[in-house]
Amino acid sequence: MKLATLKDGSRDGQLAVVARDLKTAHIADGIAPTLQAALDDWAFVAPQLAFLYDELNAGRARRSFEFDPGRCMAPLPRAYQWADGSAYVNHVELVRKARGAGMPASFWEEPLMYQGGSDDFLGPQDDIVLAREEWGIDFEAEVAVVTGDVPMGATPDEAYRQIRLLTLVNDVSLRNLIPDELAKGFGFLQSKPATSFAPVAVTPDELGDAWKGGKVHLPLRSIWNGRPVGQPDAGVDMVFNFPQLIAHLAKTRNVRAGSIVGSGTVSNKDASKGYSCIAEQRCLETIEHGSAVTQFMRFGDTIRIEMLDEQGKSLFGAIEQKVARLEADAS
Amino acid sequence: MKLATLKDGSRDGQLAVVARDLKTAHIADGIAPTLQAALDDWAFVAPQLAFLYDELNAGRARRSFEFDPGRCMAPLPRAYQWADGSAYVNHVELVRKARGAGMPASFWEEPLMYQGGSDDFLGPQDDIVLAREEWGIDFEAEVAVVTGDVPMGATPDEAYRQIRLLTLVNDVSLRNLIPDELAKGFGFLQSKPATSFAPVAVTPDELGDAWKGGKVHLPLRSIWNGRPVGQPDAGVDMVFNFPQLIAHLAKTRNVRAGSIVGSGTVSNKDASKGYSCIAEQRCLETIEHGSAVTQFMRFGDTIRIEMLDEQGKSLFGAIEQKVARLEADAS
After folding, report:
1. What residue in B sits closest to A130 (Cα-Cα)?
2. Are strands B141-147 and A221-224 parallel, antiparallel or unpaired?
3. Percent helix, percent strand, percent coil in chain A, to nearest 5
4. Do A118 and B151 touch (CB under 8 A)?
5. pTM higher than 0.90, yes or no?
6. Which of A198, A290, B163, B325 has the smallest CB count inside 10 Å?
7. Residue B187 and residue A190: Cβ atoms within 8 Å?
8. Which residues of chain A register pLDDT less than 50?
9. Are B194 and A116 a contacting pair at CB < 8 A?
10. Which residues of B touch A193 (CB under 8 A)?
């Protein structure tokens, strides 16, 4: 089943079921007012949503309407947790290599993960509004899961069973703020502004055989200013799968329903697959030529992130954003 | 006004207004179902809550009942953001000195801040449940504020006007997990388990003259296993006030209503004021004697954190917790 949250002027939007082909949708507020409310009581709510989804796909839903991704908020417009892993360790190794740093062996054995802001997510077509280009604006294309309740100390197998939904993420990063921030030792804060999400979140069964071993085995496409720059396979070179990432998060705490766990920037060792963030391209350039040529994003730049199934159909809809300058009165 | 959230079996509990003397309370669900809902629409909801608060204090509220802090969840049982500063830089300097590290000058000029898990807060009398004593279980007594909407790029003055509530926090830390985690560069994750909160959150006017310059000028008391161990003044040696902490958080993002921003462990340079976390005492011992004597918390240990006004009355009620072992079946 595919779920979206529509803009209605409220902070949490309105829950809608979206047809498999992303062409029609149906308001689901008779079942649950918001996606968080559905996740809070999933065992009771999900079957009702699934019934509506079947009706919608069969063309029998009474009040269906054309689905417009431009009306979408993030599936969870705000969430109680957003923890982003760095499961494509190749990406981490490249970044470190470009600055002459080695790779601690532990990075291959235990996930890197940071906690991001989750109070103000962006919808798939919302502008990325920032005050300064000099901050080094970058996109990061990722896959993310939304969990149910995962008890403290859960194993990866237990965590696997609590994966409720999958979606795509643009984990916008401010590259030039990162070095100073990480040097302070407390992790990212200002260098990770609001995160953006695909129009719909889908249950794992929607992925069919592409959902295997806790990974999504499909290419993730990034198109920057209309130019395809990356299509790495999200199922390749993912060193820690989603159940392992969730179990890492749950080691010393309960992880509650509606928590979002990200894969980190999708990256393949095969450089011909391109890149899911500009920083990686710059690292490759630095390693090869001694310095980076590709510049970070400018105001007006666009980024499109999408994943197609094996029949070429969009699974989650596309993230399609423009970078915009913060109005002076608020900057 | 003083607000609490009562356990009712739901994830978000039930909003209640609590009398100034913390003796009686009144359910406020006719005004707003939850504290988050109140914060989402504060300008409309707060005056109604204030009216009920006045009635309750005057003994005129019709359905008041005895206030029992043991029935409280955290004022926000889950929140969309929990960002903890480290405003008592003295504490940071001590910790670094104990391990022979110097203090970057920038630490006095720009706040340290990390993002914590906010999906599963503990109430004031909930057990601190953890799997292993060897993780180095420590309390951290702090003051925290709850914000309204703060736009990206807000100044400290603008942030000041969005401080809705104040409360106390026990930012439980797992000291022996911190070194490896910080060495990975992404900040705290497993080393910061669920955070605990005082029974009530209060509007700034409740503090009278003690709320001045964006700081709380009162001692914060920590009592460990029945023994008073700290009473540093939260208004002394706070290098960054709450408006500055919030503005730091809002530099590259909107901060939305219900965000919680912490002060970091309250710490005075005057060592006679004692300590608000065991790590600090251990640092002092290490600096003085070459090694730490005081051990971290054991299963069964208790911690009480409270702030009294100048008349000796509890402002927020007490955090009173016990450390407990996670049941084997889930560990």
Report:
1. B252
2. unpaired
3. 25, 25, 45
4. no
5. yes
6. A290
7. no
8. 330-331
9. no
10. 252-253
On chain A, the residues whose CB falls within 8 A of the CB of B127 are none
Residue B118 has pLDDT above 80, yes or no: yes
Q: Find the CB nearest B80 among A80, A107, A255.
A: A80
Measuring CA to CA, how many Å separate B159 from each of A67, B111, B116, B167, B262?
38, 15, 20, 17, 14
pLDDT per residue over A272-327, tens digit each?
999 999 999 999 999 999 999 999 999 999 999 999 999 999 999 999 999 999 98
Beta-carbon separation of B153 and A331 below 8 A? yes
Chain A residues in contact with B115 by the CB 8 A cut-off are 114-117, 187, 189
Q: Where are the alpha helices (DSSP H) in A143-241?
A: 156-160, 178-183
Q: What angle do CA A101, A106, A112 make, to 5 degrees?
A: 85
Which of the pair, A8 or B103, is modelled with greater confidence?
Answer: A8
Q: Which of A113, A114, A255 sits opposite B119 (nearest CB)?
A: A255
ipTM for the whole complex: 0.96
Instruction: Provide the 10 A C-beta neighbour count for residue A57.
Output: 17
pLDDT for the residue B330: 46
Q: Do B330 and A151 touch (CB under 8 A)?
A: yes
Q: Please judge whether B131 and A252 are an interchain contact, meaning their C-beta atoms are less than 8 angstroms apart.
A: yes
Q: Transcribe A4-51 into DSSP letters.
A: EEE-SSSSS-EEEEE-TTSSEEEE-TTT-SSHHHHHHTHHHHHHHHHH
Residues in chain B within 8 Å Cβ distance of A251: 190
Supply the mean pLDDT for chain B: 96
Of B104, B130, B152, the CB nearest to A252: B130
Indicate the SS3 state at residue B15: strand
Of A114, A119, A151, nearest to B256 by CB-CB distance is A119
| pLDDT on residue B125 | 98
Q: What angle do CA A230, A232, A235 make, to 5 degrees?
A: 155
Helices in B77-163 by DSSP H: which ranges?
89-98, 156-160
pLDDT (tens digit, 9 = 90+) per residue, B57-89? 999 998 999 999 999 999 999 999 999 999 999
